[in-house]
Amino acid sequence: MSQPILSLKPDESKSKAVANILPCRIHHDGPIEPTSTYWTPVATDDGTKLAYFRGRKLQGKVVKLPEDYRGVVVERIPEQDPKTAAEEPLGEDLDAEKEEAGSMKVTSEFDEMVVWGHETVVDASADPYVRSMEEWLQVADKTLRKNDTTEDDRNACPPPSPPSYNRYL
């Protein structure tokens, strides 16, 4: 049996979050406090969001995750005690590529995302992030629920028919 490549450790103090997909590149990947000085989105009358980031108007559309799914924000957990050469098992192939299992800590959860566009609301059918998320959810749903197939699913892709050997007789 293969070993897991990634393990997620729950954090009891995790908070509720909203994921924001911005149409820009930010060269920072750490925590920032306080965000309220430069990020204050507001809800509009038509159900969209409005914010200004670095002087640019952004309009956002809320995309909810399906009920059976949850989004998580994770943070890498540093390794506690890496194995030394003396602790390595004997007879192990030294040239073999080693798969390191990483550990991540869940810092917050979200059940919706806001996809932001410059000046206008993002078109869900044209936005690569929204489309890829929708496609991924469809694939994940089919994969995770492979035992719960419906008659339509079975007819959409019927199993191949067995080869016919009659012509060789």
Automatic annotation (TrEMBL):
GO biological process terms held by the UniProt record: RNA catabolic process
What Gene Ontology cellular-component terms does the record carry? ribonuclease H2 complex
Its domain of life reads Eukaryota
Q: Region Disordered: start and end of each range?
A: 78-105, 144-169
The record's InterPro entries line, in alphabetical order, gives:
RNase_H2_suC
UniProt-listed Gene3D superfamilies: 2.40.128.680
Name a Pfam family for this protein.
RNase_H2_suC
Q: Which residues form the signal peptide?
A: none
Q: Where is the composition biased (Basic and acidic residues)?
A: 144-155
Compositionally biased tracts (Acidic residues): 89-98
Q: What is this protein called?
A: Uncharacterized protein
